[in-house]
Specification:
Helix 2 packs across helix 5. Helix content is about 60%, strand content about 10%. The chain is built from five helices and three strands. Strands 1-3-2 form a three-stranded antiparallel beta sheet. By secondary structure, the chain is mainly alpha-helical. The protein is elongated and about 55 Å long. Strand 2 and strand 3 form a beta hairpin.
């Protein structure tokens, strides 16, 4: 179970929201994530740029445990449930990325090398 915390050190905001929905938080959105950050229940992101927001794995686990305790009707979740939700989301993301790569290879025959286009 702890393997995902060693393999993946950072999680995007989109993945964090997917983990929240998997755990059963109702209608968890970016706005609710910002609210919980303002309330000091969820930690600030480790990386914040104009196009990317990333959170540390351990911060995600601790943040969801903190939010679950602060709800009007507290959710009864523990650290292992959060980690298993993170594993399932990571697996879905990995499958989606593999499908995109397979589609690109089937339709275009090769993968660009990024930034080394035809000049």
């Amino acid at each position: 179970m702890q393997d995902i915390l060693k393999k993946r050190r950072m999680w995007s905001q989109k993945e964090v929201i997917a983990v929240a929905r998997y755990l059963g938080f109702d209608k968890f959105t970016k706005q609710k994530l910002l609210y919980w950050r303002d309330q000091k229940a969820f930690p600030n992101p480790a990386i914040r740029t104009s196009h990317l927001i990333m959170y540390r794995s351990k911060d995600v686990v601790n943040g969801f445990l903190s939010i679950a305790n602060r709800l009007k009707k507290p959710l009864d979740i523990d650290e292992l449930e959060v980690i298993s939700a993170m594993e399932s989301v990571a697996e879905k993301v990995r499958d989606a990325n593999a499908a995109k790569l397979r589609f690109y290879l089937e339709n275009y025959g090769k993968v660009s090398e990024g930034g080394k286009g035809n000049r």
